[in-house]
Amino acid sequence: MLIPRRPSWTISHSEVTPERVFLNRRKFMAGLALGTAGLCAPLGLSAAFRPADLKELEYTPAPAFSTDEDKTPFEDVVRYNNFYEFGTAKDDPARYAHEMSVDPWSVQVDGECDRPGTYALEDLLKPHALEERVYRLRCVEAWSMVIPWIGVPLADMLKRFEPNSRAKYVYFETLHDPDQMRGQRSLFSTVDWPYREGLRMDEAMNELSFFTVGLYGKTLPNQNGAPFRLVVPWKYGFKSIKSIVRIRFQEEQPATTWEMIAPQEYGFYANVNPEVDHPRWSQKRERRLPSGLLSPNWVETQKFNGYGEQVAHLYKGMDLRQNY
Ligand code: MTE
């Protein structure tokens, strides 16, 4: 276990980061004006991230699962990220995530299930039709986005591995490869790699849990968790683990990354809840990106991120202050 240190995302929510996003957007627009060659140059981003390289996906919109709120612009979704494997600054993932190779990609499935094995991602996806769901993403740091994700219901994917009756939890792990992930080479990292997350089986099987392979109509940019990640929209964003290489069904509740780092601040459940403040800041509202110094764009945070109708029953009888 690592000694808890202050992760960068706990820096007080002065308007420093929004300002950076604001400036980055302006630089991005300036880059656009310079054409593709200049797209990344003004930010110092690698020229290796070219949105044009992302593959188009075929999918059907799922309006029943989608909000009609304004979507966060693509350039914010792909340039303001948390992906500590590539560094702790918000623009580090966009700068460095191209150093990870995502093709081919396979996933190890094991534990309490009847179909364990190592599966190539394309074989996993083959039987499924992709759908688009526009979800709110609420980070524990009190910013949020609205993102059109593309993927398949997590339940449909997990059922194929035939979890048995001892499977009470499902555990996920991100790629651990310091050669490709410079944040994992850092001597100052607070994270005991690999990044780990987990869900109770009934949470994983909930209709909202999403096995995500794309956004804005195309494959996921590396900085957003290519080639596939979870999206669990009623929970703080850190539960939505990226670039997954392992899925394990198990009887015991798994140890998860942020809980391991600071258990008094980040719990296993991590349901979005404006009534339970983080020990060091309020969770009553959030900055909806794009957000700037002069227009922070605060919105009220909703319990379960507004998805209570679909998920509140999962926590009936549970004290959500104890189980934060
Ligand atoms: N997954 C891994 N492997 N590593 C991370 O650092 N950060 C989490 C989550 N998944 C993280 C991760 C956090 S804190 C958030 S808010 C979301 O990813 C951010 O997703 P986005 O960058 O696509 O907006």
Automatic annotation (TrEMBL):
Query: What is the main EC category here?
Result: oxidoreductase
Listed binding positions for Mo-molybdopterin are: 81, 84-85, 139, 174, 224, 229, 240-242
Q: In the record, what terms sit under GO molecular function?
A: oxidoreductase activity
Q: Locate the Oxidoreductase molybdopterin-binding domain: which residues?
A: 100-258
Q: Which domain of life is it from?
A: Bacteria
Q: What's a Pfam family this protein contains?
A: Oxidored_molyb
Question: What keywords tag this UniProt record?
Answer: Metal-binding, Molybdenum, Oxidoreductase, Signal
Cofactor note text: Binds 1 Mo-molybdopterin (Mo-MPT) cofactor per subunit.
Entry EC number(s)? 1.8.5.-
- Describe the reaction catalysed, as an equation: L-methionyl-[protein] + a quinone + H2O = L-methionyl-(S)-S-oxide-[protein] + a quinol; L-methionyl-[protein] + a quinone + H2O = L-methionyl-(R)-S-oxide-[protein] + a quinol
| Function in brief | Part of the MsrPQ system that repairs oxidized periplasmic proteins containing methionine sulfoxide residues (Met-O), using respiratory chain electrons. Thus protects these proteins from oxidative-stress damage caused by reactive species of oxygen and chlorine generated by the host defense mechanisms. MsrPQ is essential for the maintenance of envelope integrity under bleach stress, rescuing a wide series of structurally unrelated periplasmic proteins from methionine oxidation.
Family from the record: Belongs to the MsrP family.
Please name the NCBIfam families in this protein's record: PRK05363.1
Q: What protein does this entry describe?
A: Protein-methionine-sulfoxide reductase catalytic subunit MsrP
Q: Which organism is it from?
A: Marinobacter salinisoli
Quote the gene name from the UniProt entry. Answer: msrP
